[in-house]
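Input sequence (229 aa), recorded before submission:
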Amino acid sequence: MMRDKENSSRQPLLVIFDCDGVLVDSELATNAVISANLARYGLSLSAKQCKERFMGGQMIEVMQAAIGMGAALPAGWIDEIYSEVYTRLEAGVPVIDGIVDILDQLDLAAIPYCVASNGSEKKMSITLGKAGLWKRFGDRIFSAHTIGHAKPDPGLFLHAARHFGIAPNDCVVIEDSATGAKAARRARMRCYGYATDSHSEELDAEGALLFHEMRALSGHLMLHSTYSR
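Predicted structure, token format:
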């Protein structure tokens, strides 16, 4: 797929981060809970398989897919699984290695940034709160649950751009899922795909520019590294 070389060679005016898997390493914990829960309803999937099948989607989509695969889920399953996931996340999840330095560099460069996630604000308040990032983002946290547009619909990213008064082609999206990369492509925003596992091909297929270590993002965004401090 052709990449926009002109846009990729200039500094963005806004950086939009996904949350899970980009800011905090919450995917393993979340999918372990989903795996254990689905097993009680007759569907045997490992945490890895849950991540591969459900990554980037909303919980309603997880429910629909699981039922399609034979899980006998009750009507109130979404409330149930959220309760179980939130309880696990309250124990804390790791911050993605290198992300704090990237945020520091963006602050030094006076480049605004935000979070735009398909996850709920409550989930982000737990994961980002435990990681010490919630206050750092402040009112720059956008949830599909609140905005009403979920990836791969581009509306969530476009809402974030409008909030800052930035044109879409001056924005950069940082994603780890093909769903998010597709939303960025549809929004006509440059996307960098944080590719740490088997989703590299899917990210690439959606036009994301791949990188494999968070520290490498500094060069892509044309930031000055602070690791020498």
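Checked by second reader. The longest helix spans residues 27-40.
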